[in-house]
Amino acid sequence: MTYCLAIKVDEGLVFGSDTRTSAAVDDVRTYNKSHAFEFAGERAFVLLSAGNLATTQALVQRLHQDIDSAAPLNLRNARSAFAAAEYLGAASVEISRASAQLAQSSADFRVSLILGGQIAGQKPEIYLIYPEGNCISSSPETPFLQIGEVKYGKPILDRAIRPQLGLHDAARCALVSMDATFKSNLSVGPPLDLAFLPRDTLKITHLRLDLDTPFYHEAKEIWNQKQMEALRALPRFPWER
Amino acid sequence: MTYCLAIKVDEGLVFGSDTRTSAAVDDVRTYNKSHAFEFAGERAFVLLSAGNLATTQALVQRLHQDIDSAAPLNLRNARSAFAAAEYLGAASVEISRASAQLAQSSADFRVSLILGGQIAGQKPEIYLIYPEGNCISSSPETPFLQIGEVKYGKPILDRAIRPQLGLHDAARCALVSMDATFKSNLSVGPPLDLAFLPRDTLKITHLRLDLDTPFYHEAKEIWNQKQMEALRALPRFPWER
Fold this sequence. Notes:
Two copies of one chain form a homodimer.
Chain A: E1 3-9, E2 12-17, E3 20-24, E4 27-30, E5 34-39, E6 43-51, H1 53-68, H2 81-103, E7 111-119, E8 125-129, E9 135-137, E10 144-148, H3 154-160, H4 167-184, E11 192-198, E12 205-209, H5 214-233
Antiparallel strand pairs in A: 1-2, 1-10, 2-11, 3-4, 5-6, 6-7, 7-8, 8-9, 11-12
Helix pairs in contact in A: 1-2, 3-4
């Protein structure tokens, strides 16, 4: 399993992803699920993936090959983030279908993807690309997208994420959302990767946080303490007064 | 869908349940999913149910009939909470199996149950009874049980619930867990029912909270505000300093 999310606020985009992959409970590995495509001054994209790891790796290879060979449609020349998302969807369906045909198996070779980024002169955008190849963007009312094990980490996003929230507060919220999922689902695990794409910079900043990273450790402690304080700040029941 | 939970702390038991049932998105009704069985001075049980509503209602009827007819095994004479849970499991399997045979259908007539309570002279206990009829109790490490749509409301329970937590703080935590689920899953909805069984009282107190109940409204506002404060209290990223 996997948990990835992308948040779009007025100040830019934030991405979060875990690094645990498991073919079985006794076959657990650490893989980066966040892939950056940066073209200085032109455009910057972050791709997040959940699902079949072989399909993901084949897809990332394909994306780089298409860029290197200046294919008619690739991440560097797509006219819009939407066009890039559709290109990714078509490529992911093609690869997973080829794998299924080769294997003659009912195993699931599909992937769910999130693509976020900005093209110079355009607005930042995030897209969720379904295993079927089609895609949706975020909305002002729901300015975040999730793939994989999405439920545990959703309540804090529902409560906190608004377009007006600062980029770094949005990243703190992503951290909490990821950490809640780590606690509740063993198949999603640290270290976690955060990526920042501040609006109009076209420059991605990466941060990897592991359990022994002081920043992450401190954040967990403060969050747990503040949750207990918040609980105790809730109103008294009538008979407690 | 449904979301019910029971929490066992040193001071006693707390139960939470939503009231929304849906046969389809255009067939939504409000039903109490929390059923109390109180025998003053002897014992007190709370039953929570998720799953097929007809099976639940037939089960509750059966439980009352067995008590009224002083059946060899019923909720009033079961030797322990575990014996009561096993009795419930057997009855629920029998009823759902009979419904399936009558219908000759593959529809799911089964239910998941939580039974919590205390028998005079014994300790308070909570049990989760699976649709298959078997059951598990809580543990000191995980002193809560959930049925139905359990994921959205689990992170706050994982963070906050410990046996030492006060009964009313545990109830505030149940409220937050329920509210998180309301926000994220339309098939779980208010009003919500809380039930309190303080240790050694054998007396159940009920509280129904709806969106327009001032207590609930105030709790939601305070919680949202405290969550934003908690996010802002998390450490700065290196480049923010």
